[in-house]
């Protein structure tokens, strides 16, 4: 598993261009950070240096990690497509673990193929697309992609039941196979594919890694005031009951170790909307798991409409106190 070849963008599309890189350390000493031009990026030695930069506010899309093939002070092994912010590695990152990305979809036809391609540019991983019988033909496109790419799998569900049941179906599918790491992410590019290797790397020292908007270096982009208010208030409400051990309780860009999901009794999870993320994070805390948050920049979806609505908000208001009470009464 997780041994696919990178999906190469079409030759007819925009072609990669070179990137001028700036080493973060010279002769063992840190250099001063500068404002980067569109064709510039920072070059770091490893993931730890990358995380130190990102925590200072540097965009992860502009950080090249030296331990790519044949990188040096002038050739990072990365390129970029003209007009795009993110760097593209010469080859996707590969790790010793067998990995699968669970990608739930409902009316994501406009995003799906681009997302599958982007994931393959950054990480050697399998992908399972969990489609809830999308009326726009997402499921049919998923089947076509699975025929073209052996590492892409499709799980069809008969109807839309909510984010939680879709992820649970994907997790249970993954646990029936020998994957070591199970990643969840949205299909709308609100979660950056280039951050996938960061999550996997950090999972070497954590049972659950959460891409967080609310730790130093994290944030949101292209959100209106209402969206920011709902998210901030939601996390504050959860922290009021469950504590602040996790800053971004509702974040949905995560990497789980297999063993943690196996302990969670997933068949007993009842939440269906975005509060599902809180319930699984809370279960991880209750199990004594090591939970780590990495800063990410969460962007509003590129195409389509947000699926956050009043039913999800009301479910959260009702379910979080129940989680606290179950903990308090030992049930």
What can you see in these coordinates?
The structure is a single chain. The protein is 33% helix and 20% strand. It is of the alpha/beta class and 331 residues long. The protein folds into two domains: 16-89, no CATH class; 99-328, Alpha-Beta Complex (Spore Coat Polysaccharide Biosynthesis Protein SpsA, Chain A), CATH 3.90.550. Strands 11-10-9-12-15-13-16 form a seven-stranded mixed sheet, with helices on both faces. The chain has a three-stranded antiparallel sheet with strand order 1-7-8, with no helix packed on it. It has a three-stranded parallel sheet with strand order 2-5-6, covered by helices on one side. The protein is globular, with a radius of gyration of 20 Å. Residues 8-12 have low confidence and may be disordered.
Just name the CATH architecture of the largest domain. Alpha-Beta Complex
> What pattern of helices and strands is seen along the backbone?
EEEEEHEEEEHEHEHEHEEHEHHEEH
Tell how many strands the DSSP assignment holds: 17
Biggest sheet: strands, sense, closure?
7 strands, mixed
Number of helices: 9
Query: Gyration radius, to the nearest Å?
Result: 20 Å
Helix amount, in percent?
A: 25-40%
Could you give me the name of the CATH homologous superfamily of the largest domain?
Spore Coat Polysaccharide Biosynthesis Protein SpsA, Chain A
Q: Brief description of this entry?
A:
This protein has two domains: 16-89, no CATH class; 99-328, Alpha-Beta Complex (Spore Coat Polysaccharide Biosynthesis Protein SpsA, Chain A), CATH 3.90.550.10.
């Amino acid at each position: 598993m997780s041994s696919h070849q990178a999906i190469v963008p079409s030759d007819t599309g925009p072609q990669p261009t070179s990137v001028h890189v700036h080493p973060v350390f010279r002769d063992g000493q840190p250099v001063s950070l500068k404002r980067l031009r569109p064709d510039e990026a920072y070059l770091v030695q490893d993931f730890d240096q990358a995380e130190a930069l990102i925590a200072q506010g540097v965009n992860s899309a502009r950080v090249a990690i030296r331990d790519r093939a044949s990188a040096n002070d002038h050739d990072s092994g990365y390129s970029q497509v003209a007009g795009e912010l993110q760097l593209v590695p010469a080859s996707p990152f590969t790790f010793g673990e067998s990995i699968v990305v669970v990608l739930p979809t409902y009316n994501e036809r406009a995003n799906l193929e681009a997302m599958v391609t982007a994931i393959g540019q950054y990480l050697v991983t399998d992908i399972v697309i969990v489609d809830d019988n999308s009326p726009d033909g997402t499921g049919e496109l998923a089947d076509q992609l699975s025929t073209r790419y052996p590492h892409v799998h499709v799980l069809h569900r008969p109807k839309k039941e909510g984010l939680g049941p879709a992820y649970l179906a994907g997790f249970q599918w993954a646990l029936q196979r020998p994957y070591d790491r199970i990643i969840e992410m949205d299909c709308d590019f609100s979660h950056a594919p280039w951050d996938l290797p960061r999550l996997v790397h950090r999972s070497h020292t954590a049972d659950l890694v959460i891409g967080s908007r609310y730790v130093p270096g994290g944030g949101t982009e292209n959100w209106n005031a209402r969206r920011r208010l709902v998210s901030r208030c939601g996390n504050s409400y959860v922290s009021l009951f469950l504590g602040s051990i996790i800053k971004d309780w509702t974040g949905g860009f995560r990497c789980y170790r297999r063993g943690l999901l196996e302990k969670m009794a997933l068949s007993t999870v009842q939440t269906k909307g975005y509060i599902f993320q809180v319930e699984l994070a809370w279960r991880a805390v209750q199990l004594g798991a090591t939970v780590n948050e990495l800063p990410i920049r969460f962007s509003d979806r590129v195409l389509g409409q947000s699926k956050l609505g009043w039913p999800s908000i009301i479910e959260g208001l009702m379910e979080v106190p129940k989680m606290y009470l179950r903990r308090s009464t030992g049930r």
